[in-house]
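[Automated response] Your request has been received and processed.

Submitted sequence:
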Amino acid sequence: MQKYTRHLFFCFLVASVAVAGGCGKRDSDGTMSRENLQRTGVVTTGGPERAERIMFQKKKDYPLYSAPVVAGDRIFWGSTDRRLYAADKMSGDIVWSFPAKGWITSTPAVAGETVYFGSRDKHLYAVDVENGEERWRFAANDWVETAPAVTNGRVCFADKSGEVYVLRSGNGQLKWSFKTGGEVKSAPAVYRDILYVGSADGRLYALELATGRLVWEFDTRGAIHAAPAVANGMVYFGNLKKAFFALDAETGEIRWRFGARNKIRSSAAVTDQEVVFGCDGDCVYSVDANVGDQNWQIKTEGMVGSSPTIAGDTVFFGSRDRHLYVVDLKSGDIRTKFEADGWIRTEPEVDEGVVYFVTDKGSLYALTD
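Generated structure:
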């Protein structure tokens, strides 16, 4: 058996943390990637059963790698045309756009009256949710492609240089930063007082949210691009060495490991019973959340870097084969496949019976029953 190394520090900081199951948007300070601070990918509003009807399709001639996020009556996403867009969620009509100086591949987070997002111009931005006016910007060391997490007056994110940052959400003032040993594409997850983030150095880090002090780290010996999901007392994530892990959220001890067919870039969607994730080997897995045994596997016609979203008994995900898949959570049966105009790289967003997603051909889709 391969030996995995970990280093435990300051474990008393988390001894009292009881990590429960996946939580909804009500447990965060707003709306963000993977639906909540714990990045579980589980929505609390119902989704469509089959998603066969196009409510709208809006297209621009620039690839989209920033997942859409719904907050209130608007939908927000970033573009490689260097703009962040806000649109009416029912029509897709643009309300405002904000110009950055680099591609926006970071999925935005909305908290209160502010939208937070990163850019390849090496800045994290905070703009007004109503009109898109800039409130502040923070200069990072490198590209900011991770999705921010916003909680208790803090905004948490990382950059390509491997630096993890926590800022004051009101003014962008730096509270602390922590240097990992590699590039960070993994969006940070937060549960209570701990921030979890993966790095291309192969390690999953648990940091004290208030100070940035290292609580524990776990070496998977493979780059981590996926966001960790915290649920059921565990942290779930995969790496580029085809391995998927469940670690004890308090100690970093390994609970179970699952071997996939190929590299795992997809972040997992996690309920109290199932863990669903995709891989570069043209397939999606469902495994038991507690022991890691496989429930089902779906073969697609292209790699699945898109992170699944779960709404009720339905799983939504995209593929390089240009299809949005709508799948029964328990059986793995495919209900429908919707053919889009391009590769669906990012996670679908589900809100009040509508599923939204973007393609690398520049389209924003909204589908319903």
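Summary generated for your ticket: The chain has one domain: 6-368. The radius of gyration is 19 Å.
If you did not submit this request, please reply to this message.
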